[in-house]
From TrEMBL:
Part of the 30S ribosomal subunit. This is Small ribosomal subunit protein uS17. One of the primary rRNA binding proteins, it binds specifically to the 5'-end of 16S ribosomal RNA. GO terms for cellular component: cytosolic small ribosomal subunit. InterPro entries: NA-bd_OB-fold (IPR012340), Ribosomal_uS17 (IPR000266), Ribosomal_uS17_bact/chlr (IPR019984). GO terms for biological process: translation.
Length: 79
């Protein structure tokens, strides 16, 4: 089964080897037929501490690294 890859913005890099990534999802509401923006935060593993606040990155599913980390940063997304 392929691993999901999401794109988002780094909102926190305070923890060692961890970044918090805000991922935005857009979808059409089933009843209102209006485009809705939904956001969710993911904690991702960043072993070299190379990503800073404001960077747009891609994250990929992985085996659990810690209690809250199930994602890893793959690369910085090209703008």
């Amino acid at each position: 089964m392929p691993k999901r890859i999401l794109q988002g913005t780094v909102t926190s890099d305070k923890n060692e080897q961890t970044v918090t990534v805000l991922v935005e999802r857009r979808f059409t509401h089933p009843v209102m037929k209006k485009t809705v923006r939904s956001t969710k935060k993911y904690r991702a593993h960043d072993p070299e501490n190379q990503f800073k606040i404001g960077d747009v990155v891609r994250i990929r599913e992985c085996a659990p690294v810690s209690k809250s980390k199930r994602w890893e940063v793959v690369t910085e997304a090209s703008a």
